[in-house]
User: Which sequence fits this backbone?
């Protein structure tokens, strides 16, 4: 175990959108491409930190999806969530939670010659 030295936590603030299907809302396939375009736009503009589904023991998605965004207020986070075509179309509903990222790490390796990358 690494030696512990008390210090200030990172305290980076995010908002988490827990997005779950609305039973009986119909076929959402027509909104899927629009949803992905919305996600890619948030990513390209630096609003989205991360997103993805929860997985069961077999690796299949279940329950809510999780979208972590940068927003200055709850109102701004709700506006972002409300613009998602899944939410606008009534196919999914969401719960919004404020989150403070205090500890953690990640590794990134980029090979400039071929553009390959690995995230750990």
Assistant:
């Amino acid at each position: 175990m690494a030696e512990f030295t008390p210090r200030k936590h990172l305290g980076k603030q995010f908002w988490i959108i827990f997005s779950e299907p609305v039973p009986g809302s119909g076929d959402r396939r027509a909104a899927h491409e629009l949803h992905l375009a919305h996600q890619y736009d948030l990513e390209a503009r630096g609003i989205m930190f991360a997103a993805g589904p929860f997985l069961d023991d077999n690796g299949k998605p279940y329950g809510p999806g999780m979208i972590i965004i940068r927003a200055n207020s709850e109102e701004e986070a709700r506006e972002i969530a409300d613009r998602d075509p899944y939410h606008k179309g009534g196919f999914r509903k969401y719960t919004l939670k404020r989150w403070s990222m205090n500890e953690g790490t990640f590794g990134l390796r980029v090979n400039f010659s071929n553009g390959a990358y690995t995230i750990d």
Notes: The two ends are 20 Å apart (CA to CA).
